């Protein structure tokens, strides 16, 4: 893209934002206030890499952010498609963790089946 084209695109975007008077989403927030206060919204095209030793919560952190931003919403400007790539966990392991976060039933209980009747009931919105 040429500099003039980039400038025109930025000006058009700024004009659109002005028309919405701050009511338009400017990026993806983690929805974790402590993190959002430090890094602010991440705009489209931003690549974020989480790096730490195994077992330090990278996947759990990424999943928490993705669930918060892919959740159903009446405001379509605040919902963002998500993709998680993990070289350490299978899709089933990611699923166990997501279910644990959404239901409060630990991964251990899901795997062993040591759930009480209340824990065994799955909310209707998790069936889809």
Keywords:
mainly alpha
Count all strands and give the number.
Answer: 0
Structural class, from helix and strand content?
A: mainly alpha
**Topology as a string of helices (H) and strands (E):** HHHHHH
Rounded mean pLDDT is: 77
Radius of gyration, whole Å:
19 Å
Shape: elongated
Biggest sheet descriptor = none
Helix content: 40-55%
From the N-terminal CA to the C-terminal CA, the straight-line distance is 42 Å
- Percent strand equals under 5%
Topology:
Elements: H1 3-20, H2 33-39, H3 58-70, H4 91-103, H5 107-112, H6 117-120
Describe this structure in words.
48% of the residues lie in helices and 0% in strands. It has 128 residues and is an all-alpha fold.
Give a brief outline of the structure:
This protein is mainly alpha-helical and about 130 residues long.
